[in-house]
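User: Structure tokens for this complex, please. No commentary.
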Amino acid sequence: MTKANINPEPSQNPFALGNQEVYLRWQEQKLAAYPELAGQLIVEVRDPRALSRAEKQKITELCQKTNMAIYQSEVKDADKDVPRLLGRQMGLTNLDPNMLADEDGITSLELMPAKHERGYIPYSNRRLLWHTDGYYNDSSHRIAAMLLHCVRPALSGGENSLLDHEMVYLLLREQDPMYIKALMDPEAMTIPANLEAGEVERPAQSGPVFSTNEQGSLSMRYTTRVRSIIWKDNIATKSAVEALANILDSDCKYIFHHRLEAGQGIICNNVLHNRTSFKNGESTATQRLIYRARYYDRINSGTDK
Ligand SMILES: [Fe+2]
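Assistant:
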């Protein structure tokens, strides 16, 4: 377990810039035996809807180490109870009902030309650039965890890259702590209002890239998109954003690459991720369908471990 998950004392928060000793102890723990291959994140489960104690333990431990796990099962039904019940067992209950989610709060991500034409790339087969989910949400609706469950992969493509946001924090702080200071600025990034048909659907949101909550957990808001974001106009912010982009653009050994197969899913504390473009086939079986659930809770942040 990382210090971040258990220590509510502000003076013991490794992510606060003043606490160098606390940070160094956290860093040592974080780097010790950190996985370097996506295969090390995979947990075989018999049925994600009803995890065994050992399966749940394994997913919990991976999420504590890397903020993510990939589960794999033979349950390949188009059943939204798979992500819903898995999430619930991992302490995820507060779903974010974003405006394009299905009525039950879980989004079916598939090729949908009508939504794509409105500018929503997740519903296209184009690549998705690096981001954390809900980066445009206000601070009271911060997405702390998210789950992607694959019902059907595409004929080809649709691979995800994943990078633990705590690891990005660590890499940036190692380069220059001033990068962290700039990215913790409450005005570091502004998402312009989302205008549709001339009406404001979502007001502009300013906020930090990195922030910590009362429990001392680190969260990250970020997108590589340039069209939908305004960075604070100073050299410190620009340098920090450039350093971050360079890490994401590199072959950093902490970036995991994985293409979800049917019955597999990613459960994570909203780590950085992207997606390559994909190509569907003619038959339904080769048309990509992913269920996505976003939560305000972190994985197992309660007492039930
Ligand atoms: Fe996403």
